[in-house]
Each structure stands twice: as C-alpha cells, then as structure tokens.
Amino acid sequence: MKKGKSSVSTLRDVAKKADVSIATASRVLSNSDYPVSQTLRKRIIRVAEELNYTPNLLGKMLKNNAYHAVGVIVPTLQNPFFNQVILGVESAAREKNYEVVIYSSHRSAEQEHNNILNLLKNRVMALIIISIDEKGDALRRYIDCGGRVALLEADFQLEGAIIAQTDYLLAGRLAAQYLANQGHQKVALLTSPLTKSYRCQILDGVREAFRKSNIAFSDSDVFVAHTESESDTGLYEFELGRQLVDTFLQNRKKHTAIIAINDITAFGVIQALAQRGLSVPDHISVISFDNITYAEMISPPLTTVELPSNSIGFAACEMLISPMVSNEGGSPDIRFSFPCRLKERQSVKKLN
Amino acid sequence: MKKGKSSVSTLRDVAKKADVSIATASRVLSNSDYPVSQTLRKRIIRVAEELNYTPNLLGKMLKNNAYHAVGVIVPTLQNPFFNQVILGVESAAREKNYEVVIYSSHRSAEQEHNNILNLLKNRVMALIIISIDEKGDALRRYIDCGGRVALLEADFQLEGAIIAQTDYLLAGRLAAQYLANQGHQKVALLTSPLTKSYRCQILDGVREAFRKSNIAFSDSDVFVAHTESESDTGLYEFELGRQLVDTFLQNRKKHTAIIAINDITAFGVIQALAQRGLSVPDHISVISFDNITYAEMISPPLTTVELPSNSIGFAACEMLISPMVSNEGGSPDIRFSFPCRLKERQSVKKLN
DNA sequence: CTGTTAGCGCATTCAA
DNA sequence: TTGAATGCGCTAACAG
C-alpha cells in the first residue's frame, strides 16, 4: 500500500528515488543558485519528471510566509466594467509573475466579508477591491493584519489603503459638453438612485457643464429610479433603464437627448424607447458612461464616455505590488484618479 | 530583527497570550468537538479576537493535504456564456462550502497550461475546465496526480474525466425547426470556422431538421468565416459576424433568415445588416445560440436557443465534489449532456 | 480536561 | 559539494 493518500509526489519522494538528500533535491528543483554537481542535478531533474513532481506551494509559503498573489473582489462578474478592471489587474500581475485570485461578492456585504477573510486565511496579502460594504470592518482588519489594499471606486475612506477613482466629474462634464456642442438645449439625466457618490459626481459634472454653456438644467430634468436593493442578475440595471423611460415620457418637455447613468441602463432606455416607436438617434439622442464591449455592438452603436476601467485595474495592481508600497513602514496613503474620454459613435444626433 | 515579517498572529501567539497550550487553542479555534473547559474556551476566544487571529489555511492544508476548493478555468471572462458557467459552479460550491478559484486562460494554451499547474501547486484537486488546449497533457498530468476533472464542451476525450456537454445537435435542430415553423424556406448559417466540434454538431442538427421539414439546405447556405486565430478581445466574435454579412450579401439567394453560430456573432450580423439598410426582422430574420444576458437587451430582442451554461456549471461542480466521485478508486468516466430550449423573442418574423 | 509531540512539504542554516 | 536538522502553522495521536 502506497503511503500518500494523494498521489502527488513530494520532494522527499524525489530525493529518495534519486538517492540524494532532500536538501539537495530542494536546491535543484527550486532553482536555487546553490552549487550542485551536474551529475546529481541531472539525475534529480530526471526523477522529478518521472514522478510528475509538482512543488507544493503551501509548504513553500509556510516558509516564506508570503504568497506572490493579489486578490480581486468585484461586486459581480456579470458586468463587463468589472471584467475590464480584472483584465487590467491580470496584465499588471502577469508582468511581475503574480497570481491573481478572483472573487465575486455577488453584491452581498456578507459574501464580501467572507471573501476578504478567505484571502487573509490564504495569506494573500494584496487586495484590489470594488467594495460594496461601506462599513469596511473586514478591510480594516485585513489591513491591520498587514494586508495591502487598493480601494477602487469607493464611497468611503480607508486609512492605509490606496484609493483609486475615476474622475466622474470630468465624465459628467464630457457628456454634457458634447451634447451642448451638438446643439442639444434640453437634456434629461436618467439614473439609478443617487446613493453612490459616483452618480452624484456625474450629476455635478453635468450641471457644471450645462451652466457654463448657458443651458437650463434643473432637478426636473433628473429622473431617478426608485428601487429596493441592487441584485446580481445582469438584468438589474437594464430593467432600471426601461422603467425610467416610463416616467421620463410622462414628464417629457421637449427633451432632445438623454444621458443614461451607464451603458447597460442606456440599453434599457433604448429598447424601451424603440418599443414606443421612438428611435435613437432620429427621435431622441442617448449618451451614457462606461463603454462596455457591447456598447459598440448594438444598433445604433452607443456614444458613451469611456471610463478607464482597464487602466485603473492595471495601475492599482502595479502600485500594490511595487516594492515601494509593499515595504511595511506604515500606510501608503496614495490616492489617484483617472480621466475618461468620449467615444463618439452614432446614438447622438447633431442638431446644429 | 523581528520574527514575524507579516503581522498576522498565529495560533502560537494566541496560546501564549491566553496562557494555554497550542493544542488547546487549536481545539477551540478550529471548532473541534474535543472537550475544553468553558473558562479556557472563553479566554482563548477573547484573546483570538483581540489579536485578530486568522487561521492560516496553508498550515491546515499541509496537514490534511486537501483543500476544499474547486478551480475553474475558462477561455475568457469577456464572454457572458462562461460567466454563466462560473455562476453555476459557484452556487454549487457554496452549498458545500467549497472555495472557487477562477482563472482565465485568455484563449492561450500556454496560459491554460500554467493555470492547471498552479492549481496543482496549490493542491486544488478539483477542476472544471473549458479547455482550448487539445493536447491535454497538462490535464493528463493533473489527473495522474490525483486531481478530479470535469471537462466542459470539449472537443477531445480525456480518460478519467467527467465529460459534460451541451446537446448541440438538439440546439441546431431547435433553431432550424423553429424557422421552418415560422415559414422560412431559405435559410443561411453564418459561423466561425468549423474547427470546434460543437459548431459541426449545430450544423448537423440544422441539416437534420431541414431535411425532415423538406427544406433545401446545402453547403452553399453555410457561410464560414476565415480567420487566423481566436483572440481574447470581446470583439472577436462580433467582428466575425460583421465580416460574414459581407460574403453573405454577395452570395445571397432569397434567404429570409440567418442562423448565427452564437449571440455575439449575431450582434455583429445585425449591426452590419442595419448599416446596409436591412432591418431585423422586417427584411431578414436572425436566430442564434447562447442566450447571453445581452441578447434581450438589444433591439430587437434576440430570439436564440438558450444553452444550459448555468446548469452545466452547477452539475459539473456537484459531481466533482460529491463523495461518490471524490473517492479514489479509478476513473469515474461519467458523461452527461444537457438539453437546450428556445427563447422566442422578436428577431424572427413569422412568414406564414 | 490539558499538555507534549510528531509530522505535513519545503527552504535553509550549519556541519561535514 | 552534500547532508542532517530545524522550523514555518497547524492538527491529531498520545500521555498525563
């Protein structure tokens, strides 16, 4: 009867079969620069291959107490925006040979809490998170335990964390300015509840731009969806868009354009409009924020303000991994924000 | 020099501060049913909280040599189809308190190879994979080392793996039958290269259904994209759809409907048609396969054959985790397939 | 009920 | 150049 319950062979197995000490085997197989004779080296490598030897990272980690990995926690994998962030993180991580561990919190604070704890239990000491749990106590603890955190798009502060944010004020301004330039004088903003600060920032940006262009824009031009709680189905924001069109059409006063709070909401808006015989951009123009992949797949291709999801993931990961930060020595307290840019496509009509 | 470079406290720290033995602390903090006096129990728990004690899973694992986790490897996170699979896996895993580790191979065989190896190195001994590496040697090795594998939607066999497949033959039949029922007599199939067996199966299903309905359908009705290599940008399949419309329109012979090989390709088809003044479903009908979330977000909402992505992920995970399979005792050699069903929406016109 | 100890897989220090 | 021995954090077998 074999010894191991799992048939993964260990360093000891290799050493025994190659008739060398464990130390020597380790030195060869862990690519140490410690000198080992060619004879033994060859033999060890050969045996390792025969035995399908795969180093047990757990054992290794137990020694160094450091895992070359970063965790990523996003609210949902269903939203392409977050997928983009992940892609950014992955490419930064790959450059430095870091592992990426992906979690979805499914928009649940409890799940998020568990995810953070799991990372900690696995001694993954770097974390990039788009947090939905405003209490932040799990994160607090994570940091107390020596973890490094990059907090993306968060509504709250967290001492000791790197804070990365999109410049939503600019995003709002860009959208409004563009509509103004195209000759739109009466514009509506359709948005999910203003409970997230990024939505408020967009609104502020829009207000500011219209004020500068001398275009009237009041609270009666802002349509806010009323909803209980956010859910994880990919359809959530889409349905919101559809609902918003109802109230919009009831209160419409010669609006020629709609700003939707994000692309998926815009999809809902466009479809609901179409079903009422209003076509985009002929009858009414639509612009939104995100530039998810599908924005250019629909008809008409959606004009939208591209948010730098990829860059933000990339940069956050880089800062987190860079030696500068990973040295202990207190909180980094880095904070940076990213600009956005307009992707002009075909959902906005030029009126002038 | 301080001993711990990481400030995560260990079982030993807790034991020392609570003035008990490590064993006792372990018994309390690992929820063992071993009897410990209330006095000590309370004290240990209190100290553990004070110290932010978080068990090091690595140490634990090192003992049992088994990690309650399943790995998932998908070709890309950009495609909602795979996201659905992941969701299915996650819900099955959560039920049994398993961790889910997600990897993307970015459609690279090399990446996939590394991902599998990493899983092995981390002793994650259960894997659900949508493999793009037909050689399968990394998987072979994974299995040899005692890993359990569920191979989803694969083109190749793998001894010792659970094989799960969608019933693409049925999918093809459903689409074709539906079109026939709606009175379409001349239909085209637009597809990416027939290098994947699932695409061939769909084609076979379509052929079979049309034959039964006495509708002519020959090779000249099949339009195959020519492309070098698959890429990881979310736009890949979309662009394919757009290109296919070109060749389709050049060779069109009174086709009234198009079957696209999947939803994203259909998006490309629909947009390209629209840009040439052909509207769906008024001028031409479109049906496809997948039912990704966005299928109902576009205008017109896409009629499509829903593939059981979620169920397939769920079932695969369940089988993998279930004790039946996780007992050693040779290869399980389970093989199962899932049916699909038609989601009738508005991209197909009724002609009769 | 509590404590002591061995050992999981590995890197590393110290001896040879 | 090689090997023996130690310890990383933890559980479990055994001793008290």
List its traits:
homodimer; 352 residues; alpha/beta; 434 Repressor (Amino-terminal Domain); Rossmann fold; 3 domains; 6-stranded parallel beta sheet; 6-stranded mixed beta sheet; 16% strand; elongated; disordered N terminus; DNA-binding
Protein described:
The structure is a homodimer of 352-residue chains. The first copy, chain A, has 352 residues and is an alpha/beta fold. The first copy, chain A, has three domains: 11-55, 434 Repressor (Amino-terminal Domain) (Orthogonal Bundle), CATH 1.10.260; 60-166 and 309-338, Response regulator (Rossmann fold, 3-Layer(aba) Sandwich), CATH 3.40.50; 168-306, Response regulator (Rossmann fold, 3-Layer(aba) Sandwich), CATH 3.40.50.2300. The first copy, chain A, is built from 13 helices and twelve strands. Chain A has helices spanning 11-18, 22-29, 38-50, 57-64, 80-95, 109-121, 137-144, 168-181, 197-212, 236-251, 263-275, 309-321, 323-326; strands at residues 69-74, 99-104, 126-129, 148-152, 162-166, 187-191, 222-224, 257-260, 285-290, 303-306, 335-338, 341-343. In chain A, the strands form two sheets. In chain A, strands 2-1-3-4-5-11 form a six-stranded parallel β-sheet, with helices on both faces. In chain A, strand 6 (187-191), helix 9 (197-212) and strand 7 (222-224) form a beta-alpha-beta unit. In chain A, helix 1 (11-18) crosses helix 2, helix 1 (11-18) packs across helix 3 (38-50) and helix 6 (109-121) runs parallel beside helix 7. Chain A is elongated and about 85 Å long. In chain A, 50% of the residues are buried. Residues 1-5 of chain A have low confidence and may be disordered. Chains A and B meet through helix 4, helix 5, strand 2, helix 6 and helix 11 of A and helix 4, helix 5, strand 2, helix 6 and helix 11 of B. Chain A binds a DNA duplex (16 and 16 nucleotides) through helix 2 and helix 4.
